[in-house]
Amino acid sequence: MIGKADRQMSFSDYWLLGKISEVSYYHRLRTWVFNNLNEEMFQPLFSYYGRESISPVYTFTAMLIQFEKGYSDREMEEESRFDDRIKYALTAPRDFDGIDAVTLCDHRKRLFNSEIGKEIFIKTISQAKEVGLFNKDNLHIIDSFMIWGSCARQDTYTMIYQGIKMVLRFMKFYEMEDASKKILKRTDYEENIKKPKIAWENEKEKAKLLEELVKDALLLVENIKTKKDIKDDLKKAIELLERIALQDVEITNDGHVKMIKGTAKDRIISVVDDEMRHGRKTSSKLSDGYKAEIITGGEKGSVVVGIEVDGANIADGEHMSDLIEQSRRNGVDIDKLYGDCAYSDFEEIEKRKEEGTDFCIRVPEATNPSGGFSKEEFKIDLEKGTVECPNGHIKQFDTEKTQKHEQVTVKFRAEECNDCPLKDQCTKSKKGRTINIHPYEKEIQEQREYQKTDEFKEDYAKRPNVERNISELTRHGGRKGRYRGKLKIRWQMIMVAINNNIKVIMKHISKISNRQIKKGEVCPKTA
């Protein structure tokens, strides 16, 4: 049964009112919560019968404070009992007994599977529009940032070993374990260890262990698949075990198992959180976990209007279309979108331009990793369908394909390239130089020329405003995942975005009020 917030102020509460600074996070959050949250919003999460719980207004506000200040559930329990600033922000009286960690956990679990967080996020966007944040200096910028996973990255041996143990636990719960013990070669799966104890510097022992683990895993999977009426959680566990058993290895014709070179595509890195992924923001910055992509709007792009979460291995720009659509559903029409090279998807750009959205997107410069002539040093004539190399050799290509936005590959003959005096500056291939004509080559060429102008440089200089937003989001709860799985991480990012938007809205209202007071007008807060 839903609890009610106690909004009756005592003399003690009134005394505290003047002690908390009006520009503090606590005061601004209290003001926003007092005017925007009520128990009716959370009623779908609770029964109409039973013991009364703590007000979800208190717990939801406490969760916002947790992300802002980095508190754990236990720390939040203590702060809500003894810190007057926290009680003030919660809109609770000074004699409030606090929120215990179990209640926080229970209410959060209910919120994970509801749309309430998303609805409140949309509400902050609507409020930002109402207070005038979208009237001038409105910037829509798209960018991404990494979210560290809450679980450790596991090696292949640990993942398979822990995957087998996980399946055995499910089988024990469903009273199926006796059959499994007879088919497994290893007998240490019930021991309380993360992975088997061997001489890890000995390559032969490692190879033997890998073979034992993979074969045990596949035998277990095969055995369970023959059963009827497999429960959903067990089915999911054996599918995960089969995937991690095979993703890093190959089985030779004689039945032996060996590790493959390189990294498997979309590789799982933990059985504890199987949605985490390897990722890199740059060639030198590695990260394991998730990636968030955001669209900002409002004054200097300070309001988050759309957010998506995916594995860390997903390329930047993958969710550009989804974010534009989400922003529209959230009540924000994007007239112009700023982004870096990752968002130079001209198929999407051309589609959105037809809908009235303009773009200020940078395209990457043409480079040659081997250090020779780049593609820009070849004269590409899209109307005539020719490519001329720096030494004057000309090749034809099909212009009908480029007009249909199909990729075209132009190959210079090996004889021409091998006898060319500029070969060392062009290609190391004995088969000759190859030039790929992009499906949107015309648009890319035009954009590269436009990027050299002062007009573009002045306009594109607005894009870095999003870095301030990302810094704010990552410093206040957005850098490290607190939970497991995309669903919960996405909820976390929505909460972080709500916090950001509240601070921006309340700061803007305060600025307007101060400006009106200086002019001698009546402040709407005190009228």
What would you say this structure looks like, in words?
This protein is an alpha+beta fold. Helices cover 45% and strands 12% of the residues. β9 and β10 (386-388) form a beta hairpin. It is flat. It starts with 10 loop residues before the first helix and ends in a 9-residue tail after the last helix. Mean pLDDT is 91; it is low at 522-527.
How would you concisely characterize the structure shown here?
The protein has 20 helices and 13 strands.
User: How far do the termini sit from each other?
Assistant: 38 Å
Radius of gyration in whole Å, from Cα? 29 Å
* Fraction of residues in β-strands: 5-15%
Number of helices: 20
Kindly state the number of beta strands: 13
Helix content: 40-55%
Q: Overall mean pLDDT score?
A: 91
Pfam families: DDE_Tnp_1_6, DUF772
Protein name: IS1182 family transposase
What key phrases describe this protein's structure?
Transposase_InsH_N; 3-stranded antiparallel beta sheet; 13 strands; Tnp_DDE_dom; disordered C terminus; IS1182 family transposase; 527 residues; alpha+beta
Describe how the helices and strands are arranged.
Layout: H1 11-17, H2 25-36, H3 56-69, H4 73-82, H5 84-90, H6 101-112, H7 116-130, E1 140-148, H8 156-173, H9 177-183, H10 203-225, H11 232-246, E2 249-251, E3 257-259, E4 277-280, E5 286-297, E6 303-311, H12 320-329, E7 336-339, H13 346-354, E8 358-361, E9 379-381, E10 386-388, E11 394-396, H14 399-403, E12 408-411, H15 414-418, H16 423-426, E13 434-437, H17 441-450, H18 454-460, H19 465-478, H20 486-518
Parallel strand pairs: 1-7, 7-8
Antiparallel strand pairs: 1-5, 2-3, 4-5, 5-6, 9-10, 10-11, 12-13
Helix pairs in contact: 2-5, 2-20, 3-6, 3-19, 3-20, 4-5, 4-6, 7-20, 8-10, 8-11, 10-11, 19-20
Domain Transposase InsH N-terminal: 28-110
Organism: Aceticella autotrophica
Protein name: IS1182 family transposase
